Structure formats: C-alpha cells, structure tokens
C-alpha cells in the first residue's frame, strides 16, 4: 500500500521514513520462522532487541521510554511496512495492554523499571485477569491479596486461567481482590507479579490447534512488594478499562495491514484452485476486499483517537468485533475452496501451504472469545457507542 496520508515531518518526509524503515527491515530480516517453540522464542527475542537497539521499536510510545513517538501518518506507514516485511511480532501481551496502563497510571520509578525491558523484549509479560468463575463478569474475581510484612507486601492466593504465553513470562500483570467479594469492581487492585516468585505455578493448556499457548496460573502465598501496585489499592478498575480498551484496539492497524496481504494471497489461492471466475467466489472475494479496506480506515481511526485523546475509546469494541468476525469468515472460505485438501494439517506433506488456511480456521475460533466475547463487544457497542440502556440483568457499575 502506498496511499497512506503523507506529510512533511521534521527533516525527513514520510516517504523517506517509509524507505528508511523498509531498508532496515530488509537488511536485518531475521529469516524464516523456526519450527520448534524454543527456537521460535529465541528468534523473536533477538529480533525485538535488534529493533529496539536500532530505534525502530514502539511506534506509538513516548520517546522518553525508548519509543518512536511517531506522527499519525508514520504510525500507519510503520504498520504497513512491518506487515509487508513478515518479521516477528511483539512478544506477550505487555506492549499493547500493560504498557499504556503503566504509561498512564505508573509512578516515575515504575516506568523507569518496567517499560524499556518490556519494549526490548528482555522481559516477557502475560495477562492474569480471567479466572474460572470470572471471565465476562470480571468484577466477580476471587484471587486475593492481603497486606503483610508491616504493610510492605501483598500475599496473593488464587487461580487465573486462559493466560496467553504465561509459561514463558517474566512478569504477570494481574487483577487481585483487596476489598470484599461484595465490593466487586470497587475492591480490585492492579498488581505486577514476578512470574518466577516462589508460590507461582504455571501449567500449560492445550488448545484446538494442538498448541499450548494458554496456561492456568496458581498463586500460593506469593509475596509481592507494594511497590509493584499500579494505581491505588482497590482502585484497579479504571486501569482495567484503559487496558481492555487498548487490548481491543491493540494491533487494529497492524492486523489491517497483515490482512491486506492475506486477502491478496486468498485471491491468488482462488486463482490457483481454478475457481476465481466463479461468480459466487468473486462475490465473496469482493466482500473480503471491501472489509479489509474498512478495517484499514478503522485502524487509522483508532490511532487517531489514541493520539488525540490518549485512549482508544469504546469504538475499539467495534474494531475488535469487525476484525474477529472477518478473520473467521475469511479462513472458513479458504478452507471451503480447498475442498478436502483444506482438511490437511501442517504436518501432512500434502498440506496446501503447510496447512496455513486450516490452521487459521482452527485458531480463529477463539478470536471471538479473547479480549471479551463478541456478545460482550456488542453490549459495549450498544451501551457506550449507541447510548442504548444498560442490560437490566447486569449488576450496577
Ligand atoms: C485466544 C484467547 C486468549 C486469551 N488470553 C487471555 C489472557 O492472556 N489473559 C486472561 O486473563 N484471559 C485471557 N483469555 C480469557 C478471555 O478473556 C475469556 O475467555 C473471556 O473474557 C470470556 O470469559 P469466559 O471464558 O469465562 O466465558 P463466560 O464469561 O463464562 O461466557 C460464556 C458465554 O456467555 C456469554 N455471556 C456472558 N456474559 C454475557 C452477557 N452479559 N451478555 C451476553 N452474553 C454473555 C459469553 O459471550 C459466552 O458466549 C483469553 C481467551 C482467548 C479465547
């Protein structure tokens, strides 16, 4: 894509920025994605350090924390070139979710301690919000933190679940209960927990694709310094809103840029399979083409909202719902046009393109659950975007 909005910025024009970034990504490309999990993690980690050391990490982050603080146009260009180059993405859920929360609510010491190592990939972060009895209804969470050691430490007990990549995380950003169970969101605190601390047990959970991306985490008398609390005690809920908003918005532009490439590859697949002139197929392809363009504008709106208001706003739910339903439809369609070949998984030597389409079909089943289910996104859109009355079955905020 070359039609991103461009303007002069300082001494370097946006087009010069694009070319400089493209040259860097080409010259420093870390090569093909390794197959083994450990090799893949090392490959990704090394890449993040290369990116940071060259000053190409954190396009939206403030410069004082090692980011690039790019203009709107350059953030769009950055995401497009990044997706085009097919380099590894960021590690863990820290960058898109925890970082904006720490930037907004953290103390200067916390920003100094946590932000740069996260951006450079030296410390991997994972999110500990959900619990077996608290997913959509997050305010009912039960993992407790009580003060000990003269008030200098919290002692944490409880269980989290569905924690993406927590098996190799260094820091867990968690919600814990410091108030009574009845206080719901008024008794929740935002705590950063050392994943290697005594009493933390992380167990992998196998998903539909056979991968072990998820985990469950158990806290048994885990001691956490009060200095690791972001915001005030019992005041974690506004931070949750910030981080969930960013989670839903996270990567909206990046995904739009990636799916731009994927739609082109899907059109190519339809040609290769000899179905590209079928009117029904053409109709579906046109639909994906339209949706990927809408996604791009929606991603731009998210960047613009964050730049102007510091927050993605409730419209991040619209973006999230749009992208997740799109990616499910797209992979379902790809598997359809592959016919029986579409069932072959990556380990089968006859699999088309190493089984990527069926792999995507299986993994995107979870897209409309993570970061809040599609139903919850629709509720948010109804109440906070359209201004409709709150669901009477829901407890008051
Ligand atoms: C890919 C993926 C990654 C994830 N990563 C993480 C992570 O890193 N860290 C973390 O803490 N969690 C993570 N999660 C967990 C995720 O946030 C929860 O699964 C999600 O919030 C739903 O909660 P639940 O599974 O408990 O389902 P429930 O909340 O029990 O929902 C069950 C069903 O009821 C519906 N429902 C519930 N309440 C309402 C309502 N008020 N109105 C209408 N329908 C409703 C839901 O839409 C859903 O269909 C991840 C999940 C997935 C799939």
From TrEMBL:
One CC-aspect GO term: plasma membrane
Keyword set includes Endoplasmic reticulum: no
Can you give the residue ranges of the Acyl-CoA oxidase/dehydrogenase middle domain?
126-222
Identify the Pfam families for this entry. Acyl-CoA_dh_1, Acyl-CoA_dh_M, Acyl-CoA_dh_N
Which InterPro entries does the record match to this protein? Acyl-CoA_Oxase/DH_mid-dom, Acyl-CoA_Oxase/DH_mid-dom_sf, AcylCo_DH-like_C, AcylCo_DH/oxidase_C, AcylCoA_DH/ox_N, AcylCoA_DH/ox_N_sf, AcylCoA_DH/oxidase_NM_dom_sf, Mycobact_Acyl-CoA_DH
Co-factor(s): FAD
- GO MF terms held by the record: flavin adenine dinucleotide binding; oxidoreductase activity, acting on the CH-CH group of donors
Gene3D superfamilies this protein is in?
A: Acyl-CoA dehydrogenase/oxidase, N-terminal domain, Butyryl-CoA Dehydrogenase, subunit A, domain 2, Butyryl-CoA Dehydrogenase, subunit A, domain 3
Keywords attached to this Swiss-Prot or TrEMBL record, sorted alphabetically, are:
FAD, Flavoprotein, Oxidoreductase
Residue ranges occupied by any Acyl-CoA dehydrogenase/oxidase N-terminal domain in the UniProt entry:
12-122
What family is reported? Belongs to the acyl-CoA dehydrogenase family.
The protein's matches in PANTHER family, at most eight in alphabetical order, are given as: ACYL-COA DEHYDROGENASE, ACYL-COA DEHYDROGENASE FADE29
Q: By what name is this protein known?
A: Isovaleryl-CoA dehydrogenase
Q: Which organism is it from?
A: Amycolatopsis acidiphila
């Amino acid at each position: 894509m070359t039609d991103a909005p461009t303007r002069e910025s300082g001494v370097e024009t946006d087009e010069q920025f694009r070319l400089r970034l493209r040259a860097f990504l080409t010259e420093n490309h870390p090569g093909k994605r390794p197959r083994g999990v450990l090799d893949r993690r090392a490959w990704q980690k090394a890449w993040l350090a290369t990116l940071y050391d060259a000053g190409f990490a954190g396009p939206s982050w403030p410069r004082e924390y090692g980011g690039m603080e790019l203009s709107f146009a350059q953030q769009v260009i950055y995401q497009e070139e990044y997706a085009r180059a097919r380099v590894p993405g960021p590690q863990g859920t820290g960058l898109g979710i925890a970082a904006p929360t720490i930037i907004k609510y953290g103390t200067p010491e916390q920003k100094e301690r946590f932000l740069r190592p996260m951006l450079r990939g030296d410390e991997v972060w994972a999110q500990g919000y959900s619990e077996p009895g608290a997913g959509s209804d997050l305010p009912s969470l039960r993992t407790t933190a009580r003060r000990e050691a003269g008030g200098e430490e919290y002692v944490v007990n409880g269980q989290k679940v569905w924690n993406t990549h927590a098996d190799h995380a260094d820091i867990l950003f968690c919600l814990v209960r410091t108030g009574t169970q009845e206080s719901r969101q008024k008794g929740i605190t935002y705590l950063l927990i050392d994943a290697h601390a005594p009493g933390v047990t992380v167990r992998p959970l196998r998903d539909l694709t056979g991968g072990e991306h998820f985990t469950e985490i158990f806290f048994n008398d885990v001691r956490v310094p009060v200095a690791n609390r972001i915001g005030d005690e019992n005041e974690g809920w506004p931070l949750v809103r910030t981080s969930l908003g960013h989670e839903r918005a996270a990567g909206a532009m990046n995904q739009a840029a990636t799916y731009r490439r994927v739609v082109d590859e899907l059109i190519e697949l339809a040609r290769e399979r000899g179905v590209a002139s079928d009117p029904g197929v053409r109709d579906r392809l046109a639909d994906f083409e339209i949706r990927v363009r809408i996604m791009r504008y929606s991603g731009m709106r998210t960047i613009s909202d964050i730049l102007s208001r510091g927050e993605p706003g409730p419209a991040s739910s619209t973006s999230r719902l749009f992208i997740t339903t799109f990616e499910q439809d797209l992979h379902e369609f790809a598997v359809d046009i592959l016919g029986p070949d579409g069932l072959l998984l990556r380990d089968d030597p006859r699999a088309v393109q190493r089984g990527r389409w069926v792999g995507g079909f299986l993994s995107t089943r979870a897209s409309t659950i993570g970061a809040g289910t599609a139903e919850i996104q629709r509720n948010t859109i109804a109440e906070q975007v359209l201004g409709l009355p709150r669901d009477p079955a829901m407890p008051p905020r």
